[in-house]
Amino acid sequence: MPVNRPGASGVIIFDMGDARGTRISRRGLLLGGTGAAVAGGAALAGIETEVLPGRAWLYHRLGRDGAEGVVPDVEAGAFASGTFASRARGKDVGWAISRPPGATGTLPVVVALHGRRQDHTSAFRPDRLGLDRFLAAAVADGVPPFAIASVDGGDSYWHDRADGDHASTMVIDEFLPLLADHGFDTRRIGLLGWSMGGFGALRFASLLGPDRVPAVAALSPALWREYDDTAPGAYDDEADFDATTVMGRQQDLDGIAVRVDCGEGDPFYATSKEYVEGFDRRPAGGFELGDHDSGYWRRIAPSVLAFLGGAIAQR
Length: 315
Known about the structure:
Layout: E1 3-6, E2 12-15, H1 26-31, H2 36-49, H3 55-61, E3 79-86, E4 91-98, E5 108-113, H4 131-140, E6 147-151, H5 167-181, E7 185-194, H6 196-208, E8 215-219, H7 238-244, E9 257-263, H8 269-277, E10 284-288, H9 294-314
Helix pairs in contact: 4-9
């Protein structure tokens, strides 16, 4: 179920995670109550202008999601997983790495950051993103080879928190050295994330800069204009939000190949558009029918991996 609370200007904020929450029927939306036609027209107008909350599940009920992506029916490459004791997070942390089939030698690596209420397995589970098989298909189609690595970030929104859960420090000071120990080239890394992880990927790219990050791809990034609009628990307080937001800081990604994608039925559609429009040079990616869910992310996965592979190989 979505969590809701008053946001700025009294608008209800729905914390959807990767779920659509409670659904209502198209008829119930458009015809319920007195003055049905007027209410229905107002509801549709509210959806389009994003005045009404719950845009994602409204679009789903109206058939505005687009087709769900399908994981390719191919064999994935070599796969490794494990855990390590993270001092930065104060707990054991899971990780996983997928290589494309037949790839040998020292590969570049893309670090994949999961969404809220997910973990390192979400990148590769076939009912989530299935990126190991998308990677195998991409390299078979000619995309320059690279590995994908994922790690547990909890619900930290991929930055160091006041409670001692330091996911940002974990990735940079612990996980990247682990990847180097496994034979990957971590001098320069690609970044990929969805939802909470989309924000995290953009933020890590801005922290590490173009000398370390040739390319970043953010899928449906969890972006907000103001602290009062954020999901509960995403930030410690307003000062934490102000220190870590990527909104208005697009220049921090100068020299990095950037891609941003978001579905038109996504609750983060408006802020993602605003973020994209803040670049001097428009990022790759774009906006199309889609929800805030794995079906949409799978649909765009082939073009996202082609973008990352091409950008990493050129730099």
